[in-house]
């Protein structure tokens, strides 16, 4: 149990201290190159493309999972401490909170006078056309993305890692890398215009079902407003995604603001779009919700360890001997 908690703590600390590694050195970017090579015409028919996409969704995420699990297994064979450190690095590479909050904060601040810069910066958060968005709509886009990426960029990988880490660090690293692979596939291929990505999008919907709702719970707890989660039910299914609406709608209700993607969805429509102060509060709230998510993950570690009667901690014993 203590080993798992130490590994998660180290991974989160690395994210807070370093942020995301440079793109050229980031394994997620390397996997993205593989996905880019798979994004091609495998068949002359749409049905054939969808069938090829099933194979891609089934096999491609196994590549980062095998690499991550194998790396931790090999390091553990050398020394238990090395295995713990490598597992922490793997988890660190699958999460992104510091960079998310910094970019969101930058966009929100830029809406106070420099809309051109805000429109440029927001491209790192959302894919929508920002050229005509007002300051309030830019703030809405930024905090929507922060809420959604709380699930994608933290909860989705740290929760399964926390469940498996007390049992097997290589398996925990593998599942975190696999989930990140699924998310990457969806972000690159999961568009209606790409039949080859249909299976990847459906798999991502399945994988993100629980993390999106845990992220919403974390936001409600961080806001000290548990009823915001109940109020969010009215709009959680409005966005096209079956999952992203939960953290976004909960954030909208907790802050008493309207979040809107023009022409696509409106969450908490009776409220006003976020002011500058609302945007700043949104960034702070997502940051606190990230902390709550880590506590929830730690709770999973304790629950699994207690349930399985796992009292020994090889990594801690290393420090004590």
Automatic annotation (TrEMBL):
Subcellular location: Cell membrane
Membrane topology according to the record: Multi-pass membrane protein
Transmembrane segments: 49-74, 81-101, 158-179, 289-310
Keywords linked to the UniProt accession: Cell membrane, Cobalamin biosynthesis, Membrane, Transmembrane, Transmembrane helix
Keyword Cell membrane among UniProt keywords: yes
InterPro entries for the chain: Cobalamin_biosynth_CobD/CbiB
GO cellular component terms attached to this protein's record: plasma membrane
GO biological process, one term: cobalamin biosynthetic process
Recorded superkingdom: Archaea
Pathway, per record: Cofactor biosynthesis; adenosylcobalamin biosynthesis
Gene Ontology molecular function, alphabetical: ABC-type vitamin B12 transporter activity; threonine-phosphate decarboxylase activity
Record keyword Transport present: no
Family stated for the protein in its record: Belongs to the CobD/CbiB family.
Summary of the function given for this chain in its UniProt record: Converts cobyric acid to cobinamide by the addition of aminopropanol on the F carboxylic group.
Alphabetized PANTHER family for the sequence: COBALAMIN BIOSYNTHESIS PROTEIN CBIB
Designated name of the protein: Probable cobalamin biosynthesis protein CobD
Organism for this UniProt entry: Natrinema limicola JCM 13563
Lineage: Archaea, Methanobacteriati, Methanobacteriota, Stenosarchaea group, Halobacteria
């Amino acid at each position: 149990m203590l080993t798992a908690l130490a590994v998660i703590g180290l991974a989160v600390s690395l994210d807070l201290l370093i942020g995301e590694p440079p793109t050229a050195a980031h394994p997620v970017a390397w996997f993205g190159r593989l996905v880019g090579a798979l994004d091609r015409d495998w068949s002359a028919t749409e049905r054939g493309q969808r069938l090829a996409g099933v194979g891609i969704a089934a096999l491609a995420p196994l590549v980062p999972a095998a690499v991550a699990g194998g790396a931790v297994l090999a390091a553990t064979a050398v020394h238990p401490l090395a295995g713990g450190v490598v597992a922490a690095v793997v988890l660190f590479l699958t999460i992104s909170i510091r960079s998310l909050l910094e970019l969101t904060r930058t966009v929100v601040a830029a809406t106070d006078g420099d809309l051109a810069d805000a429109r440029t910066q927001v491209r790192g958060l959302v894919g929508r056309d920002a050229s005509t968005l007002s300051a309030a709509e830019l703030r809405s886009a930024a905090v929507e993305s922060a809420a959604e990426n709380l699930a994608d960029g933290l909860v989705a990988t740290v929760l399964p890692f926390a469940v498996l880490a007390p049992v097997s660090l290589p398996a925990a690293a593998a599942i975190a890398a696999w989930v990140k692979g699924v998310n990457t596939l969806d972000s690159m291929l999961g568009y209606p215009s790409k039949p080859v990505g249909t299976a990847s999008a459906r798999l991502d919907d399945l994988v993100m079902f629980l993390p999106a709702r845990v992220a919403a719970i974390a936001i409600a707890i961080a806001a000290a407003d548990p009823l915001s989660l109940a109020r969010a039910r009215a709009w959680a299914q409005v966005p096209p995604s079956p999952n992203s609406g939960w953290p976004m709608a909960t954030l909208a209700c907790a802050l008493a603001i309207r979040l809107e993607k023009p022409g696509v969805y409106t969450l908490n429509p009776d409220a006003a779009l976020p002011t500058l102060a609302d945007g700043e509060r949104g960034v702070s709230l997502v940051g606190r919700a990230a902390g709550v998510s880590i506590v929830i993950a730690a709770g999973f570690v304790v629950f699994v360890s207690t349930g399985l009667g796992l009292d020994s901690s090889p990594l801690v014993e290393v420090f004590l001997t």
